[in-house]
Design brief:
5-stranded parallel sheet, 26 helices, alpha/beta, disordered C terminus
Length: about 850
Amino acid sequence: MNSTRKTVVVVGHGMVGHRFVEALRARDEAGQWQVVILSEEKLPAYDRVGLSYYVGAWDPSALALPGNEYAGDDLVDLRLGQRGAAIDRAAKTVTSSTGEVISYDALVMATGSYAFVPPVPGHDLPECFVYRTIEDLDGIRAAAEAAGPGAHGVVVGGGLLGLEAANALRLMGMTPHVVEFAPRLMPAQIDDGGSSVLEKLVADLGLNVHTGVGTANIEQADGGLKVTLSDESVIDASLLVFSAGVRPHDAVAREAGLELGARGGILTDLSMVTSDPDIYAVGECAAIEGVCYGLVAPGYTTAEIVADRLLGGEGEFPGADMSTKLKLMGVDVASFGDAHATTEGALSVVLHDAAKGTYAKLVVSDDAQTLLGGILVGDATAYAALRPLVGRPLPADPASLISPAGAELGADALPDDAQICSCNNVDKGSICGAIAEGACDIAQVKSCTNAGTSCGGCVPMIKKLLEQSGVAMSKALCEHFEQSRAELFDIVAVTGIRTFSELIVKHGKGTGCDICKPTVASILASTSSDHILEGEQAALQDTNDHFLANLQKNGTYSVVPRMPGGEVTAEQLIVIGEVAKEFGLYVKVTGGQRIDLFGATVDQLPPIWQRLVDAGMESGHAYGKSLRTVKSCVGSTWCRYGQQDSVGMAVLLEKRYRGLRSPHKIKLAVSGCARECAEARGKDVGVIATEHGWNLYVGGNGGLTPKHAVLLAGELDDETLIKYIDRYLMFYIRTADRLQRTAPWQEALEGGMDYLKAVVCEDSLGIADDLEAAMAKHVEGYKDEWAAVLEDENKLSRFVSFVNAPDETDPTISFDDSGERKVPVLLGLPPMPVGVGSDTAAAGK
């Protein structure tokens, strides 16, 4: 035994405390220090940054940091469930919450922070929570399950953590409301322009946003909460989550007489030493020369410095990179450097594309030569390349770096000392060195350098560095599945696996995310006729599929019955009119030759659909990544120019492919002649009549990058036409990437259209029979999703506004009927025009 060994006591075992222990043990080859860790939580260190990934899987081990139990290390004594209660600086001892007294030679305070709860009347009610630990999420989960699907939850705070908390409520099946006192979301990270784009993006995805208002009062009412805002508006909710910022956990230090910062936190110098030379502070509880840093990256830096100091080093805190990157529900937000242009003479270059839903801003020096910072909303792909350039000369005109048609900033534009991973302070040279020594994928680069092991924001740049070095990149779906979507499809088809849980256990890792869960849900739906709300599948769906309806901006839903080929009977039109009148719905004829009914609340969906189903109508699947419509002209039956029965063919195709789940939405059209009244060449599959049969066009898409469909085959009879469409659609479903439309899928095929024609028309791969059989299986097994819900009490139980008061309507939903059109009113905001003209707009996509 080493008689000269010293003891360092670590108070706190979060991410930074664990990083300190790791760094010290990795460098202390002589075993100079014995480590005793006091952890208030009963779980060892876990990834608090990734706390939202706990939702859905509810598996704490998936968040566990590697090596957090120090198995086999005799020099680390981890004591879970023991808080550091008191410090005796004179005796150099710490007393734990269990009464044990532990002597130290050095003490490291890693107590982190706690969630700030504003002193609002009612803040301590049992339905009020904070969003900070796994235990907090377990409590929120229990309350959400008791409230039931669709129940409303309020998040106080619209910052980074507030949006993550709101997303967690959404993933639990709740309807989230975000209340932010500032006039914009994420006020510390982004400006007004970026926030306006972000607010629209998250509202479209199901979050109800209330900015410029505070929380005035919280009281219990009708088994839930009545939340009154400062503008006197009221939200009736089942629970409330405070995410209004954090405060340094410095109470024990305060009681021990350690000097604190002016705004709290344990005051330290740049070497992380407190006012007591034997006591250090790291992470969020440390006020470094008076400043507290609330991100994990500077926290890790402080941990490394203290480990260095205990072993005789002279490390000092170099400053902090406060860059942040958020991704939730598919929305990207990034902020880096001097994002608010506070530097004297700073200039801003802004590209705001309202149609595309993106906002990009670069802050540059007064001569436009040096990058100072930036903000990216909606599309943050440039973040990994731009952030390392902060403080450095720009390689191109700043406007071109954020313009879609401008200069692409590659990895080769960065110098070797450019910091790629800010969390772990890893530069480009270190990563390139690891690649040169044999690291041939992201996992190996992570293992060698620690880059990308924390927030993951630098992973795209690591990929670029690997590609630049000539390394073939993986097409992994996400971090939980190494396989591509096409490979997962094949696994499901071959093995017969029918649940996400079994698939991830046997072929993946972790608990899944909002990328792989809906993707696997789509694959499962494409390979069987199981209902998407059956069993575990229900938890994998996004908001629209979860309620089999399209979520609108004011929290209501739209209803779109199927009308094959645009056909509808007089009796069905009467029923639609009666339903619209009875439930007060706004009625719109869509661009896909259907009728959309807007403004239904969750609890109204079943009785509305009962009426429609009884009238012989079925779900139009406007909410799903599946067949939407088959548009048609009137064809030869009525039109003097028509050469074939386009309506009959459209009805046949729509009934054949209805409910077909796919990587993205699918639209078809049938035109009765070359005059193209049905706009068939703008659809994924377009059929145009000729004198001798049908011409088949494929790969037409609308959207931001419209594409005309390309001729696949001509002069086809009915049987051959359907056979080719069967093969084309099933080949697309099996091989496309997630959320990939048919046009980019076709363009990405090696061999292009020649290859596609060979597969579909000539059966060059020998899979034609298999593709046709798969489609036949879908056709045979199809059942209307809403009809199945109406027959199942368990599925019907989802469709209530409040589980404890099923007969009550949601008071936060209102409309303005004063004009010619009924329009939704957002709480605290003026009426907004409906302005939708297609199934795409109706679906909120």
